[in-house]
């Protein structure tokens, strides 16, 4: 069975929020209607987002590092939000493993939000139904788009290409290779929900550089040493025999 | 024990109409609040994407839990055959229906999409405890309705015991279902505990009886009907046992959590934090809502006074609200442990930044909507007592007490 998912490289993510904005842009103008935004320029802005970034600190000061952690619905293979939904509005698609909400069946009881251990669900303040990442299901199958653009909006927009998209059940897919070779891991696997989205860990690149390697002998930017000759200095005719 | 005569209350006094008008005004306020929240959306409430259930749910769950507890009085008469309780059965059953109706009204009006009620009652996901609760609530209404009919219709009296059994079993399942809404929640530290179900059953005994006693006292006093000490003392002692049982379950619940290291953050948050939840737990639930009413119910000077017993009932209700507030809101206020031991510097989710917990302050419309549910319950009871024979003409000791000499 296909299981589409995102793989996010935390070593590359710089926390620029481009994924957040492009997600909002695509999904607010998509078929499912707008994602509400209230007081966007006010004191307490609030709104619905499918994707947000949390930033946390690792280590003890002063030896700390900052990790940017983009988080959206993880499209769990055993999603806890699906069985709790009283009307069956939350469901997991057989064909590609995407977890979706049927907005027409959602009664807005918010019980799924209680049961998601990742805090990925949001109630749209205006439509009053539960919303979450759809993996841009209206985009990835859109044959009107060139094949190279049939990816979630967040993947398309990520400047350093920290986000990969594909089928994690296909061992030859880019995402499976990345998970396999770069130590991809799931968020809180202890819940047993088997999140489909994976994260690639921070990696340290260590190398030794010697001082002489920092000086370039043939640096083309170096200015040539050139001094204007004095008036009394011998000319070329004076110093040559011909 | 003489034959019990049931009689409608007069319901012609200014006080009666004043009561109806007052309750009606609260209901109108609640409808206005509902309209305001429905029109403007979730954003005008204190609820957020982190605290998704707020004050209306505290009211709704309190009323639903109390509804099944209010039926206990009838069950003690029918199922356990205690004759003293039989005359109290009709009031018990109608109060149970009314409390459930009030609770469901609040729950429904606080749904994101109350207009989709028809979807909720026609499309079931049977894996969902929430869906089961919808069936259990509607079933409770039906079964208690039949039970009431069998108690009130002389020809059907002989079947009332069977209906009483069915209602008793159903109510136990119902409260188990309500408790399991939290017991089955694995994602948050405060829940995921099987003890939630029996704890809610015991809570229902206590809250339901406290409300029942207040309604009983008020009805008999305002209609000048005699109410003997035997019944009052029996109910008072029973309430004391139930309050103590709720405390016992609360202690076991917290001790179990304290034993498991993974639950330590939520326990320290509730039991020893510097937030309002700690204050509400210790002062609201434990001291004012449990220990104080226990003292009032058993200290001889106050135990002999109906006024103090009524105050103890009121404090028990206050304790119940406090308990549900801490369970519901307190459990959500602690952020999800997604990055344990790490300090969150910034969050697009606005949660847990630098160790802060989620804030919740109930907005006025939420509180008024909740009070509207209480008013719906009380107005139903007030009206029912006037149109049908629910209230015994006398519960004096020589009438009600089977052992009276």
Question: How do you describe this structure in short?
Answer:
Chain A has 242 residues and is of the alpha+beta class. In chain A, 17% of the residues lie in helices and 18% in strands. Chain B is mainly alpha-helical and 405 residues long.
Structural commentary:
The complex is a heterodimer of chains A (242) and B (405). Chain A contains 7 helices and 11 strands. With 242 residues, chain A is an alpha+beta fold. Chain A has a 3-stranded mixed beta sheet with strand order 10-1-11. In chain A, strands 2-3 form a two-stranded antiparallel sheet. Chain A has a two-stranded antiparallel sheet with strand order 4-5. Chain B has 405 residues and is an all-alpha fold. Chain B has a domain at 14-233 and 360-400: Formate dehydrogenase/DMSO reductase fold. At the A-B interface, strand 4, strand 5, helix 3 and strand 8 of A face helix 5, helix 6 and strand 1 of B. Strand 4 of chain A pairs antiparallel with strand 1 (343-347) of chain B.
């Amino acid at each position: 069975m296909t299981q589409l998912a995102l793989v996010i490289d935390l070593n590359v993510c710089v926390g620029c929020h481009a994924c957040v904005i492009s997600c909002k842009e695509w999904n607010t103008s998509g078929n499912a209607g707008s994602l509400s935004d209230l007081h966007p320029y006010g004191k307490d802005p609030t709104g619905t987002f499918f994707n947000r970034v949390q930033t946390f600190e690792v280590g003890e000061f002063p030896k700390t590092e900052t990790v940017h952690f983009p988080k959206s619905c993880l499209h769990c293979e055993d999603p806890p939000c699906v069985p709790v939904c009283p009307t069956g509005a939350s469901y997991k698609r057989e064909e590609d493993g995407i977890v979706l909400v049927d907005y027409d069946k959602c009664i807005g009881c918010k019980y799924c939000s209680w049961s998601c251990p990742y805090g990925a669900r949001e109630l749209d303040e205006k439509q009053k139904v539960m919303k979450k990442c759809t993996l841009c299901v209206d985009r990835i199958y859109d044959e009107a788009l060139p094949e190279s653009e049939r990816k979630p909006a967040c993947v398309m927009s990520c400047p350093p290409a920290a986000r990969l998209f594909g089928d994690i059940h296909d061992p030859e897919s880019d995402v499976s290779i990345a998970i396999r070779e770069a130590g991809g891991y799931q968020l809180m696997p202890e819940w047993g929900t088997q999140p489909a989205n994976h994260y690639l860990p921070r990696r340290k690149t260590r190398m030794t550089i010697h001082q002489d390697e920092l000086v370039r002998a043939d640096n083309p930017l170096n200015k040539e040493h050139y001094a204007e000759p004095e008036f009394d200095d011998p000319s070329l005719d004076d110093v040559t025999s011909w | 024990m003489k034959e019990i005569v049931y009689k409608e209350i007069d319901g012609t006094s200014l006080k009666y109409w004043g009561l109806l008008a007052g309750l009606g005004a609260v209901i109108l306020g609640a409808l206005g609040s509902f309209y305001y929240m429905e029109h403007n959306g979730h954003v005008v409430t204190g609820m957020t994407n982190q605290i998704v259930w707020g004050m209306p749910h505290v009211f709704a769950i309190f009323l639903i839990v109390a509804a099944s507890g209010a039926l206990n009085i009838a069950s003690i008469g029918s199922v356990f055959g205690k004759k003293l309780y039989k005359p109290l059965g009709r009031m018990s059953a109608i109060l149970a229906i009314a409390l459930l109706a009030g609770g469901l009204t609040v729950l429904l009006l606080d749904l994101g999409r109350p207009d989709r009620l028809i979807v909720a009652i026609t499309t079931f996901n049977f894996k969902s405890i929430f869906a089961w609760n919808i069936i259990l609530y509607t079933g409770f209404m039906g079964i208690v309705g039949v039970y009431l009919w069998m108690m009130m219709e002389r020809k059907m009296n002989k079947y009332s015991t069977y209906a009483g059994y069915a209602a008793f079993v159903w109510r136990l399942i119902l409260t188990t279902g309500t408790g399991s809404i939290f017991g089955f929640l694995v994602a948050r530290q405060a829940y995921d505990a099987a003890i939630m179900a029996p704890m809610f059953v015991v809570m229902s005994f206590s809250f339901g009886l406290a409300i029942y006693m207040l309604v009983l006292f008020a009805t008999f006093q305002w209609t000048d009907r005699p109410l003997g000490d035997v019944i009052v003392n029996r109910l008072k002692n029973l309430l004391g046992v139930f309050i103590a049982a709720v405390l016992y379950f609360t202690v076991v619940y917290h001790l179990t959590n304290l034993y498991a290291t993974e639950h330590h953050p939520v326990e320290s948050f509730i039991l020893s934090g510097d937030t309002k939840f700690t204050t509400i737990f210790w002062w609201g639930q434990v001291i004012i809502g449990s220990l104080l009413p226990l003292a009032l119910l058993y200290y001889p000077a106050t135990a002999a006074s109906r006024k103090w017993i009524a105050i103890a009932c009121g404090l028990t209700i206050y304790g119940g609200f406090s308990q549900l507030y801490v369970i519901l809101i307190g459990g959500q206020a602690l952020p999800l442990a997604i990055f344990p031991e790490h300090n969150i510097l910034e969050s697009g989710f606005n949660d847990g930044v630098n160790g802060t917990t989620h804030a919740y302050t109930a907005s006025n419309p939420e509180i008024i909507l909740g009070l509207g549910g209480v008013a719906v319950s009380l107005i139903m009871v007030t009206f029912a007592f006037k149109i049908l024979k629910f209230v015994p003409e006398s519960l004096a000791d020589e009438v009600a007490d089977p052992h009276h000499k």
